[in-house]
Amino acid sequence: MARVKDLWFSERTREKTKRHPDRGGSKAAKRWLAVWIDPDGNEVTKAFHVKEAAKKYARDQESDVERGDYIGPKAGRELFGPLAKKWIRLRGLGGTSALRYESTNRLHVEPTFGARQVKSVRPSEVLEWLRELEKTHGASARSVAFHIVQGTFDLAVADGMRKDNPARSPIVPRIEIDRAERPAWSTDKLWSVVDQHPAPYRPVPILAAGCGLRQGEAFAVAVDDFDFEPGRVRIERQLVRVGQRIVFKLPKGGKTRTAPLSPGVARTVQAHMDTYPPVETTLPWMYEDGTLAEKPVTARLLFVWRGELLAPPMAEGARTNAGRARQKNAEGMNLQTSVYNVLVWKVALSLAGVIPPPANNDRGALLFAEAREDGMHALRHWFSTTLQDAGVNLAGVMDFLGHSRKGSRLPVTLGVYGHVTEETYEAARGAVDRSLFRLRAVQDQSSNGTETEQAVSQ
């Protein structure tokens, strides 16, 4: 039962125990003590100068207990910084995502909120922080930083540290990331870029487009992943840089999958292996929590650095001295995204006329223009568009791309009743070959080097 206690009088003897401030007593002395019982049955108190304030506070606390909204007066004294690190840890992020969140928290969140008590942060302060971040960072970086702040306060509310989340206040706007639909590449554009690749790397974009692979997945494909007879390829790993380390890990989302392997793509892969035998590559294996397995993993990779790139034609100055230096003694080593993009992918884009030739910056270094919309991820868009245009089962398209069908927002017809059969695989294989290899001459690299017309399903 909520009540108020007069601290100047003993409840047992009813004798006065303190002097009035005007007669020599402490000016800071609080006379009235609000008393209530918390949800655990413990008596809790808080002192006030004014009796009515103590009464109101005690009644409010008692009402919160009855509604289940009780937050103790000592709650929320925890510092934001340790709680944010706990929230990131509890997210169970993969190695690369964990590094990004930890870095964003350290650089953009902790300097403002790290030393603050959880209960002390107001919505206006979150808004002010966001406005300052807008001046120096793009939507993507702001979105991650805001997600950390919002998630940390969600954890504080869930653990009874405060009643509300200041990052969810109506005055704090949502961060909108521009997810405008990318223009789909045409097959002609795809081949114009493929044709500008040096011979050892031409199958990389063909395999990525024909099977819907991400760049790191294409770099990590091994000979044992292919089932040529049924026409399938298993996507079991990706190759990524985490900090200064190159590692194998599961594909995005921690999920393996199987993708259709069309006859045309299969012949391209087999011809490549005849000319460039797979190379055993041993790298650390990273688990989804960012830790490394005790033993490294060895895979016979299709694509590694080959000698042809060590002394290439300069392609009108496109391949920079810095890039060539990084390639020194790289023969047989695994591909790396940053180097591949400069030495192979952007060179091909430039020679195909997709992006301008590289230009010297103010320091005299050759740099390519940004090509975000024309990165290798565009090949996955081509794969998805090609399959959907051919009427391939949408459940199959999602599975082949590694997209989850378990979300509550998906219609039950797709999430529960969408099935992928051998007919789905066959439809996908036919769609890829009809689009990618129709009327296209494929060089038979395994025999005499002459070009032969590839037969494809119509």
How many structural domains does the protein architecture include? Answer: 3
Strand order of the largest sheet: 1-2-3
CATH evolutionary superfamily of the largest domain:
Intergrase catalytic core
Average pLDDT taken over every residue: 83
Shape: elongated
The radius of gyration over CA amounts to 31 Å
Q: How many β-strands, per DSSP?
A: 15
Output the CATH topology of the largest domain: hpI Integrase, Chain A
Question: Biggest sheet, open or closed, and with what strands and sense?
Answer: 3 strands, antiparallel
Low-confidence spans: pLDDT under 50, at least 5 residues? 310-328, 444-458
Counting DSSP H or I runs of 4 or more residues, the number of helices is 15
- By CATH reckoning, the class of the largest domain would read Mainly Alpha
Order of helices and strands: EEEHHHHHHHHEEEEEHEEEHHEEHHHHEE
Hey, roughly how much beta strand do the residues contain?
5-15%
Helix content: 25-40%
